[in-house]
Specification:
By secondary structure, this protein is of the alpha+beta class. Helix content is 15%, strand content 25%. It has 4 helices and 9 strands, in the order αβαβαβββαββββ. The strands form 2 sheets. Strands 5, 6, 7, 8 and 9 form a 5-stranded mixed β-sheet that branches. A 4-stranded mixed β-sheet has the order 1-4-3-2, with helices on one face. The radius of gyration is 20 Å and the shape is globular. The termini are far apart. 17% of the residues are buried.
Length: 197
């Protein structure tokens, strides 16, 4: 395991104005979501899932990271000081954000995944061109799928279809499609990200 010294970081003072725009009020220079990080029990299993089920491509791997004596891990990412990252893998997923996979070990590690209704619960939604074909593929691969595809017919999200899928380690993935757009777009001042935009 490698030992790392902590580099001093300069924090910019952020000011918030109720009169300013969202971009003016927040952290300056935000361009979009670079990546979404997942801690997985097995890095190979995680890579295989995102590659074989969702078509992501592995771009790089690096690690390990740990600190056997100091507080580097706690100071850097707020985990137990003796936590160790065995490996990190970065994956490119279509036209959207990258996925970063971590394989950790830690003395106080919680191995139970939160449900969507729990604090800290989360899911990642992947846009697919043909949601029924995507769900059929997930089922053929032996993955647990939930009710759907469910097509929303009313409200601002009318036009989208969704279906949740469970990863082998218990995280939630949502498959989503809205090939003809959503109802909110008609009068929207701000449009959500969509493929091709």
């Amino acid at each position: 395991m490698k030992k790392f010294a902590i580099a001093a970081a300069c924090a910019a003072c952020l000011t918030f104005s109720s009169a300013g725009t969202a971009q003016e009020a927040g952290v300056p220079g935000v361009r979009g979501i670079d990546h979404i990080g997942f801690t997985v029990p097995d890095i190979e299993q995680g890579i295989m899932f995102f590659r074989d089920v969702l078509g992501c491509e592995e771009a790089m791997r690096f690690g390990p990271f740990s600190d056997d004596e100091g507080t580097f891990m706690q100071d850097l990412v707020d985990v137990h000081p003796r936590a160790a990252i065995k490996q990190i893998a970065m994956m490119r997923c279509g036209q959207g954000s990258n996925i970063e996979l971590f394989q950790y070990s830690a003395p106080d590690q919680n191995t139970k995944m939160p449900r969507n209704s729990d604090y800290g619960g989360f899911h990642i939604a992947f846009y697919v061109e043909d949601i029924q074909a995507a769900v059929d593929k997930a089922k053929a691969l032996g993955l647990k799928t939930f009710m759907g595809p469910l097509e929303l017919k009313e409200g601002p999200a009318a036009g989208e279809s969704i279906n949740y899928v469970l990863t082998p380690w218990g995280a939630y993935i949502e498959l989503i499609s809205y090939p003809n757009g959503m109802a909110y777009e008609k009068d929207a001042k701000t449009r959500l990200w969509a493929p091709g935009e």
